[in-house]
Design a protein that fits this description.
The protein has 7 helices and no strands. It is mostly helical. The chain has a domain of about 100 residues.
């Protein structure tokens, strides 16, 4: 055998890819309809979620402010306690379709809070909020840490879970 007849790796060439025996495109129009339907449902769901996220902006901002108020140090605790009723009233005013909330007080304010709460609120919660806003500083100093934590916890649960009729 001669040297020219010996096969060499340099003589190998890559084969051209052949065409597949089938098409990758769907064969019926039903697949196209299904794909368009899934796309439309996905878009509608995305728009709905975005609008809901935008509508809950007031809730996210209120929870952020509540976290700031709960994190204040003991020296500024009085100012944080004074701002808590105002924060809840601002949340109620920001609720879509809440109606005339600005002039509610006492039993009417408690009834509004209860009506929109996900879990039952303590009796006299509105009265406690009223005292936080208007009582003398000496009364605020009598609150212990457990009572303050309970106020912030109840306020947080109401802000997070209040029901908004759409």
């Amino acid at each position: 055998m001669t040297a020219a007849a010996v096969p060499s790796i340099d003589q190998l060439r890559e084969l051209a890819p052949g065409s597949p025996p089938f098409s990758y495109w769907p064969q019926t129009w039903a697949w196209l309809v299904l794909a368009l339907l899934i796309l439309a449902i996905s878009l509608l769901w995305g728009v709905w979620r975005w609008r809901r996220w935008q509508a809950d902006r007031y809730r996210r901002e209120a929870l952020a402010r509540l976290d700031q108020l709960a994190a204040v140090e003991a020296g500024q605790r009085l100012q944080a306690l004074r701002e808590l009723p105002e924060l809840l009233k601002r949340v109620a005013l920001s609720m879509p379709g809440a109606g005339a909330v600005a002039n509610l007080s006492g039993d009417a304010w408690q009834a509004f809070l209860d009506r929109h709460a996900q879990v039952p609120l303590p009796q006299g919660f509105a009265q406690t909020l009223h005292l936080l806003a208007y009582a003398p500083e000496a009364w605020l100093h009598t609150l212990d840490e457990q009572q303050v934590a309970a106020l912030f916890s109840t306020s947080r649960s109401w802000i997070e879970g209040h029901h908004v009729a759409v």
